[in-house]
Amino acid sequence: MVLINGCEQTTVPVADRAMQYGDGCFTTILVELGKPRLWPLHLQRLQKNVSALYITEPDWGALARLVHQRAASYSDKGVVKVLISRGVGGRGYSAIGCDDTQVVVSDFSWPQHYAQWQQQGIELGVSEQRLGLVPMLAGLKHLNRLEQVLLKRELECNGWQDAVVLDVNGHVMETTASNVFWRNGKIIYTPELDVSGVHGVMRAHVIELIAGTEYCLEFVKKTLEGLLCAEEIFITNALMALVPVTRIDGRDFPERTAISVLNKRLYSC
Ligand SMILES: C=C(O[C@@H]1C=C(C(=O)O)C=C[C@H]1N)C(=O)O
Ligand SMILES: Cc1ncc(COP(=O)(O)O)c(C=O)c1O
């Protein structure tokens, strides 16, 4: 079902700025047993993104009620997606006078292959395409996702499950639709994401979870070689949670020490 500003509807005006310029942001939420998982973090990120893009705030209370209502229709697992557009208005790029924020809530079934990925782990390719440096937008989950569309095509052409993506300076950033963590000894590393990448909700949650363990976390800028020296690697997003990486570029990563600790904490929340 697709709800636009709370009403069942499937079309948006051609002049909507999300369509014209990708002028908006979104989040994709896992539903478990009728509840939106990590809703406070999803809401926080939407609020931060709306504020960073100077979009007029929608009615957050009404949005929360809608998300919980849609989630309640899933007795097992499901997905609810929230997309916020600046709406119709302005002239050209200028958004002056454009304050008719549009909120689109849709829901989907959960991608079943993630259950197998969580259990067995996945092998990653290494993308030849590089992410640009976009400090104005770094971390935001905005609607301009053409880099990811092209990266996904590269995956599909190569038959990869997912791939490590580097920026133009050769630093490891993320994968096509997830954040990346790796461990050496008691230190867990994750890319800094100050010039590129998405600040994932699951990344934020994993960062919180690490704080209560024997591991410490470092935000880093590392090349592929740095990543490949890891003892353990895992990737995260809101729908698949934590997925172990078994192999990259001919190197095996059989250890699952930190991911086991973090999964225990994740599933006890
Ligand atoms: C692209 C979307 O959402 C992202 C992708 C996934 C996924 O493919 O599993 C999960 C959460 C988001 N990071 C989307 O259109 O929902
Ligand atoms: C490029 C990219 N990085 C990271 C993520 C992970 O974000 P989240 O944990 O909020 O799902 C996503 C999900 O859309 C993504 O598309």
Number of domains: 2
Binned, the helix content reads 25-40%
Span between termini: 29 Å
CATH architecture of the largest domain: Alpha-Beta Barrel
Strand content: 25-35%
CATH class of the largest domain: Alpha Beta
**Overall mean pLDDT:** 97
Q: H/E element string? A: EEHEEHHEEHEHEEEEHEHEEEH
Query: Ligands bound here?
Result: ligand LIZYD4HQ, pyridoxal-5'-phosphate
Q: Report Rg.
A: 19 Å
Discrete helix count: 8
- According to DSSP, the number of beta strands is 15
Largest sheet: 9 strands, mixed
Category by helix and strand content: alpha+beta
Organism: Photobacterium lipolyticum
Subunit structure: Homodimer.
Protein name: Aminodeoxychorismate lyase
Enzyme class: lyase
Question: What's the short version?
Answer:
The chain has 269 residues and is α+β, with helices and mostly antiparallel strands.
